[in-house]
Amino acid sequence: MGCGGSGKSTFARVLAQRTGLPLIHLDQEYWQPGWVERYSEDGWSDRVSELASGERWVIDGNYSKTLDVRLPRATAVIWLDLPRAVCISSALLRVVRHYGRVRVDSAPGCPERWDWYFIQYLWNWFSTSRPGVIRRLGLPKYAPVVARFRTRRTAWDWLARVPAQGGASLPALNTAQLE
Fold first, then answer.
1. Is the pLDDT of residue 72 over 50?
2. What domains can you pick out in the chain, each with its CATH number?
């Protein structure tokens, strides 16, 4: 998980490839062609509950309203907690690179586009959503292992140590205090 533009989807894709675990992109589940929402709030929670009912998976996406559904089933949470400037610049670069095309982690019929509202959402995520994520990840009732990476380099260095498919469990995660 992490702010938009943090590299969640790419990281999740590589993690799923290395481990052989099924990959679930929440954006593919949530959106219909033309960026139309597919679910009501209750319907979305039910769908995420269904997706998370599998024995093992890698789930890519924020959708903080469904954390209560996903966290109890998670054995580890990988949080790409990168700086605002990195996330926004990456999101802008993504628009330039993929404008008008559907990315592999997007829903069919949802091409990359310029969306001022989304850029504002990313800017505000650090003051509106991030504090709630910190609070929820610190709750002992979930007790997943939380790996909080503050740079892409540390995240990818960890990912490079993940054994290939069929290998042992994930490498040790150095958990950090949540602010």
1. yes
2. 8-160 (3.40.50)
